[in-house]
Amino acid sequence: MSSTGGQVGQNTSIPPGSGQSRKGLSGERWFPRSAVNPGFIRPQMSSAGGRMCQDLHTPTASAPKLAWRHGLRYTKYSAMFLRPTFARSSLPADPVRIGATPLGRPSKRARRSGMVWERFARWYDLDQGSYEEDIPFYLALAQRTGSPILEAGCGTGRLVVALARAGYRVVGVEQMPAMLARAQAKLAAAGPRIARRAHLVSGDLRTLALDERFALAILAVNTLMHLAEPEEQAEVLRRIFTQLAPGGMLALDLFPPHPDFLAPASGELVLEKVLQDPETGDRVLKFVSRQADYARQVLHTTLIYDRVDAAGRVERTAETFPLRYLYRPEAERMLLEAGFRIEGVYGSYDLDPYDDEGERMLFLARRPEG
Question: I want to staple 275 with a disulfide (CB 3.0 to 4.6 A). Which of 27, 115, 205, 284 is the partner?
Fold first, then answer.
């Protein structure tokens, strides 16, 4: 997650046959298995076979059977993830209200305890914490620049720990306390020698002002996109520029807004993967909904994590937040206006040239000497 997250909404469940939409479901609450299969969805068994992928040692199950079990319409199966979807009509554009609290805002209980944020950080870390595809790239870049290194929006500490383990001195900045707590726990578990190399700071990237100057700054996977306005994105780049020492490098990793990538963002709720809670053995179902606002270049994104225990009860934790994507000319303009000199734009962590089929939009930019 970035240093500027979305809001967690109220705790609620949808009774079967209510006709209510699942879009924007937020917060967490236990509710019976029957509520997982709302009445507005009509499951359809598919003749497609195959076995689902092993996400964190998840027990295998046939894709159609899993779709049926959770009230989903099985439409497509790939080797990468299971993709049953809801009909678009089930996801209205307007906010849904249950009781007096609009969905998408935190309930009083959530605001008091922070429990929803803690649960979200836990499932987010289970989901994303083992991602390693970009680590060799950042280690190679760190070898080129040296320490100290700034990770802006460090989340649960995935890169901070990897860089500290490799011998680099790292400062991680994160606004969400629950994410920062998990990052601190990872450093403690790594041992005092590694933990001494890393320092975690609670802060907002839009007001970033550290005393130290850095040889390398990292805005990893889509972090800048969590700022919903172009003015905020530009301000973060200006702040990071001032944090770099002369000659310091910025690595900016963004989602590439190719039409083929944006087209699926139609508001459908997708079962993206099934994880397993290492503490309890319970299954954790990850749902994703993305609705594109092409005029504002925003993907309205909802992440839902449903933990299903042995008795079939479901605990739901969700967050809705905007992701503002940038096209290459706009990103280049922001970097140049912040004072950077752009050294390259790449389409992968292997530094393949950026083109219309690139997996990432990766910028390397430097603060000029002097």
Answer: 284
| Cα→Cα distances 305→58, 97, 302, Å | 15, 21, 10
Q: What is the C-alpha to C-alpha distance for residues 37 and 129, in angstroms, rounded to an integer?
A: 30
Residue ranges per domain, the chain? 30-41+51-90+102-115+260-324, 135-257+327-366
Sheet containing 314-324: order of strands: 30-31, 314-324, 298-308, 283-293, 266-276
The total number of residues written for the chain in this structure: 370
209 contacts: CB under 8 Å, gap ≥ 6: 239
- List Cα–Cα distances, 77 to 70, 81, 188, 243, in angstroms: 16, 7, 40, 45
**pLDDT truncated to tens, each residue of the chain (370 aa)?**
444 443 333 333 333 333 333 333 333 333 333 333 332 222 222 233 322 222 323 333 333 344 334 443 333 322 222 222 222 323 333 322 222 222 233 444 444 345 677 888 899 888 887 888 999 999 999 999 999 999 999 999 999 999 999 999 999 999 999 999 999 999 999 999 999 999 999 999 999 999 999 999 999 999 999 999 999 999 999 999 999 999 999 999 999 998 888 887 888 898 999 999 998 999 999 999 999 999 999 999 999 999 999 999 999 998 899 999 999 999 999 999 999 999 999 999 999 999 988 899 999 999 999 7
- Helix/strand/coil for 37: coil
Cβ atoms of 265 and 258 within 8 Å: the answer is no
Sign for the CA dihedral angle at 263, 73, 300, 275 comes to negative
**Containing H/E element for 288?**
strand 283-293
Contact between 23 and 96 under an 8 Å Cβ cutoff? The reply is yes
Q: What is the pTM of this model?
A: 0.69
Q: How many degrees, rounded to 5, is the angle at CA 311 between CA 305 and CA 313? A: 35
